[in-house]
Design goal:
By secondary structure, the protein is an alpha/beta fold. It has 14 helices and 16 strands. Strands 2, 3, 4, 5, 10, 14, 15 and 16 form an eight-stranded mixed β-sheet that branches. Helix 4 crosses helix 5 and helix 8 packs parallel to helix 10. The chain is globular. The two termini are 37 Å apart.
């Protein structure tokens, strides 16, 4: 694991001090989701709020790379699905958490090449730092920024690697009792995990999982993303007619809470090194948790949306003609990029695509082969 430089280390000290003060005010214990919220989103301090370079390869100082940064092929394939949707709904896009702005840039170009004239492209971004970077990258591109999701929206909404950075509740089973994992100040002044009996909301969520998939073994630890479920329910209020496309790392619930996945899915990324300690160097790590796509689909459905399709990123991109796009612009670099996007050993199987919506008719191009709705 590479060590942070002096400036980064000093920044982490400020983040740690901010979280320590919060723990002190909370009588010595905060739930992990609050810790994750502060580490990622505390104003001017959190990982996504403080200006550190995040996206891109290690040579550029990035911590991780997302599909849009790998290749424009990703957006070009996605554009084919969007073009089909725009035959039924207005040609408007709202992107949540647009990262570096690469996807917005490439999607605008790819849709234009398909002859699609966008009515609007809006970005909902919580990070002022990332918004500034997006504005720089997208100069001259017809994009606007929103401070909150729209209401009564008609068009297509997009969330690429957004749900996996929403704070999660950590739990552990002790016999027949569910405990919640929180964060305390350790004896060395750093952070440590500590457990308290779960409140009714978290305990009920775990009980529902066990009722569906069987009792979890003693000592089993994982997470529940109540915030992401709430976000999916809210999307039904935002979307009057159209589709929401969610692309993220994750599993259906029966895989997510498999008895052999004993320690959950929380992972951190620092300078392209993955590790499992979210308490290390707070504020310098991207902290993520995989998405329970069964819970996301159920939340959207219960809120009144239709679940339109669910498949792997590989199947979705191949269904959307990514091989044709590669053939039209083949280079060794583009071929290697496509391998990263669709290979089962890379992103192809780990990342899934879920589409929910209202007033949209199928069949949808992205799910013509390999649709896994039955697995949810």
């Amino acid at each position: 694991m590479p060590l942070p430089g002096p400036t980064a280390a000093e920044h982490s000290k400020r983040v740690v001090a901010h979280i320590v003060a919060e723990i002190t005010r909370a009588d010595g214990w905060i739930p992990f989701d609050r810790y994750m919220q502060l580490a990622l989103y505390a104003p001017e301090l959190g990982y996504y709020m403080a200006g550190a370079h995040k996206f891109g390869d290690s040579a550029a100082g990035g911590d991780f790379i997302t599909a849009p940064e790998i290749s424009p092929l990703f957006a070009q394939a996605l554009a084919r699905q969007f073009a089909q949707l725009f035959e039924q709904v207005p040609s408007r896009i709202v992107e949540f958490g647009a990262g570096s702005g690469a996807l917005a840039s490439d999607l605008n170009t790819a849709l234009s090449m398909r002859g699609v004239a966008l009515e609007s492209y809006s970005i909902v971004e919580v990070s002022p730092d990332l918004m500034d970077r997006q504005r720089q990258r997208l100069q001259g591109t017809p994009v606007d920024w929103l401070s909150a999701p729209p209401t009564e929206f008609r068009g297509v909404m997009l969330a690429n690697e957004v749900l996996d950075v929403m704070p999660v509740k950590l739990f552990v089973k002790r016999g027949n009792v569910t405990f919640e994992r929180g964060v305390v100040i350790g004896p060395d002044g750093g952070f440590a995990f500590d457990e308290r009996r779960a409140n009714d909301v978290l305990a009920s969520a775990v009980t529902a999982i066990e009722a569906e998939h069987g009792a979890l073994p003693d000592g089993y630890a994982s997470e529940v993303s109540l915030l992401a479920e709430s976000w999916m329910r809210s999307s039904a209020q935002w979307l009057a007619r159209g589709a929401l496309v969610v692309i993220d790392y994750g599993f259906p619930q029966r895989e997510y809470y498999h008895p052999q996945r004993l320690m959950g899915t929380v992972m951190c990324h620092f300078r392209h090194h993955a590790h499992s300690d979210p308490l290390w160097m707070a504020g310098l790590n991207d902290v993520t948790a995989h998405v329970d796509f069964s819970a996301m689909a159920a939340a959207a459905h219960d809120a009144g949306l239709n679940v339109l399709g669910y498949t792997s990123q590989a199947h979705f991109l191949l269904n959307c003609g990514v091989l044709d796009q590669l053939q039209a612009q083949h280079t060794p670099q583009s071929s290697g990029a496509l391998h990263r996007l669709v290979s089962e050993a890379e992103m192809g199987e780990l990342v899934k695509v879920l589409m929910v919506g209202r007033g949209v008719q199928g069949p949808l191009i992205g799910f013509t082969r390999g649709d896994r709705l039955h697995s949810l």
